[in-house]
Amino acid sequence: MEDRARLIRELLWDVCRRNFASVNFLSAKVQPTRSRARWT
């Protein structure tokens, strides 16, 4: 039972980490164009 809970927790952590990384990547991609459009 404990092993299963630990496995699920690790899986959730992996998914969250991947989502966080992709969100960071997308925001990094979008941010420069947005700020550039604002300044020009």
Give structural notes:
The chain has a domain at 1-27. Helix content is 95%, strand content 0%. The chain is built from one helix and no strands. The protein has one helix at 2-39. The chain is rod-shaped and about 55 Å long. The mean pLDDT is 84.
The overall pLDDT, averaged over residues, is 84
CA-based gyration radius:
17 Å
Distance between the termini: 59 Å
Hey, roughly how much beta strand do the residues contain? Answer: under 5%
Number of strands: 0
Shape: rod-shaped
Structural class: mainly alpha
Helix content: over 70%
Order of helices and strands: H
Helix segment tally: 1
Largest sheet: none
Unreliable spans are none
Question: What's a concise summary of this model?
Answer:
The chain is an all-alpha fold and 40 residues long. It contains 1 helix and no strands.
